[in-house]
UniProtKB/TrEMBL annotation:
Lineage of producing organism: Bacteria, Pseudomonadati, Pseudomonadota, Alphaproteobacteria, Rhodobacterales
Protein name as catalogued: EamA-like transporter family protein
Top-level taxonomic group: Bacteria
Keywords recorded for this protein, A-Z: Membrane, Transmembrane, Transmembrane helix
UniProt-listed InterPro entries: EmrE-like (IPR037185)
Species the sequence originates in: Rhodobacter aestuarii
Length: 297
């Protein structure tokens, strides 16, 4: 497959993943309502995904030179997504999604100051715009700090995701199924640690155990298995900022679904701050779209 076609396919996969994840919060809230409170719902979904992926990962091959660091960066991505997932229990859907999507700014800062990559004037503008949007978004309620634990988790998760995608981009790749398994393991370990710290057993009685198990298995298999295996394949073929931008399809879908299904609304200042964060994302991807295709690392 030519480089252009590979890039186009990878971009389409990331875009579709964002749309799918715009509805992910529904499964988190459903498990929470059925008794798997806090991080336990994420534990159930990621554990189910891990078990479902194992048979496929057995037959997948990693690049012969894939070092331990390749596994570590993929597992870190799983940890980041676990924080994001748990955040939906603690905060409003639109806020959690927007704070996560501050990650393109993190990606650019990491690329410039850690990796030594060149930075354009538009990307400098993106940093300024993104930081301005974050300040407005956080200060909309009168405080410059996150309002709840969910917002802290989302902001931290976005930062870890930026580190993860940068590492995934520059390290030898894992086979998609194996990457999805490592990703799910990283998420399970993170969610389990947080669950044991903040909501140790015994757990409340689980309502409708059969339906709860079915939700966990279906959500784990689809979101944490299928979509993330595809995302892991695509992420190694795209610039980290491009990955973050294309996933922004989740912002629109998640915000609209939360407004329609959960009655969540955002204030004018929150919309302004969120808009600036999304504008920063546009500025991030603009130079990449106009640049000549880069060789795969």
């Amino acid at each position: 497959m030519s480089l252009d076609r590979t890039t186009s396919l990878a971009s389409l996969i990331v875009l579709a993943t964002g749309v799918a994840w715009g509805f992910y919060w529904l499964s988190v809230r459903a498990l929470d309502a059925n008794g798997l409170a806090g991080a336990w719902g994420t534990v159930a979904m990621t554990l189910a995904a891990s078990l479902l992926i194992v048979p496929f990962a057995r037959f997948g091959r990693s690049a012969p030179s894939a070092p331990l660091s390749s596994y570590a960066f993929v597992a870190l991505g799983g940890a980041a997504f676990a924080l994001y997932s748990i955040g939906f229990v603690q905060g409003r859907v639109a806020m959690i999604i927007l704070l996560w999507f501050f990650s393109p700014v993190w990606s650019t800062l990491i690329g410039r100051f850690i990796m030594g990559w060149a930075i354009s004037a538009l990307r400098i503008a993106a940093i300024v715009t993104g930081l301005s949007g974050l300040a407005i978004l956080m200060g909309a309620d009168g405080s410059p700090l996150p309002e709840n634990a969910g917002e802290v988790m989302s902001l931290l998760g976005g930062f870890l995701w930026s580190i993860s995608t940068t590492g995934i981009r520059v390290k030898p790749p894992l086979a998609p199924a194996k990457a999805a398994l490592v990703f799910a393991f990283g998420a399970t370990a993170t969610a389990l640690a947080l669950a044991l710290i903040f909501a140790p057993p015994p757990l409340p009685e689980i309502a409708h155990p059969g339906a709860t198990a079915l939700i966990a298995i279906a959500a784990g298999g689809f979101w944490w298995g299928l979509t993330l295996a595809a995302l892991m394949w695509a992420a190694v073929r795209l610039d980290p900022a491009r990955v973050s931008i294309l996933l922004m399809s989740e912002v629109l879908v998640g915000t609209l679904s939360a407004a329609l299904l959960a009655g969540e609304r955002m204030s004018a200042f929150e919309l302004l701050g969120g808009g600036l964060i999304l504008a920063a994302g546009v500025l991030e991807i603009w130079p990449t779209q106009r640049a000549a295709p880069r060789k795969q690392l």
